[in-house]
Amino acid sequence: MDNKIPLIVVCGPTASGKTALAVELAKLYNGEVVSADSMQIYKGMSIATAKPTAEEMQGIAHHLIDFVEPDVKFSVADYLPLARECISDIYSRGKQPIICGGTGLYISSLINNVRFEEIKSDPQLRARLEAEYKELGAHAMWQRLLEIDPETANSVHENNVPRVIRGIEAYMLTGKQLSQLRKESITEESDYKSCIIGLGFKDRAVLYDRINRRVDIMIEDGLIEECRSVYESCTLETACQAIGYKELIPYFKGEKPLDECVELIKQETRHYAKRQLTWFRRMEGINWVDPSESSDFENFLRNVQKIVAKTIFL
Question: What is the CATH number of domain 5-116+188-312?
Fold first, then answer.
């Protein structure tokens, strides 16, 4: 255990306050933050993906944010070597690496040392499944994945075409669920001694209220203009899964009024938060804390510090 890199992980659903907590922990432990968000990697999509602003970062270095073009496909297999390199570099400079994000697959794969090289892919089968997606639609394909691999299906949005198709493809090729294949891909002991802080809310209505207020602020900050610019300038691949973009397309096409699309963004974001919580609840070793139960942020931070100290002896 002495040779392992101590790793603080802040995870939880969208709008739960992960960035603020990660920044404060970085200030306390001389740390730098490595993002574990599958949408914040994309350039330009700052408002829709809730990228931390310079003000929110408070001078703390953040890695793996805003570095991939919106029309480029990017997967967990692409993320892992980059994240591992960032963690090693931060630690080698005498600083504390802190993972912060809401993409459960990224986080669990990273801390459990999952390797993806052995999971097969078949271009012909992939092409056939993509054709079926165009014919049957996103919901039908997601339902198909749900029937064969509920764990994977419940971790992705039905509009996340690459991951839905990947789950179906893996099962058809191997006869095993993609979720099971990933578990079997844990071939070596983890390099990290992790303290995982999960932000949860016993009263789900509190979280949903935070989500609704965040969407309203995003609209005020220019979400409509940002989405229109991306929609008109490129053909999106993985990036089109970002909530806020796909819901506004009917408005841009003149098919739905803006207020209806905004309400759909709030609804989809709440559903996404529920899926995030479902994923994280299945992960082992998470220390759950409820920000709404503390009298103030300083008290909440002190409670988190106690968990960190007890877990990785910082």
Answer: 3.40.50.300
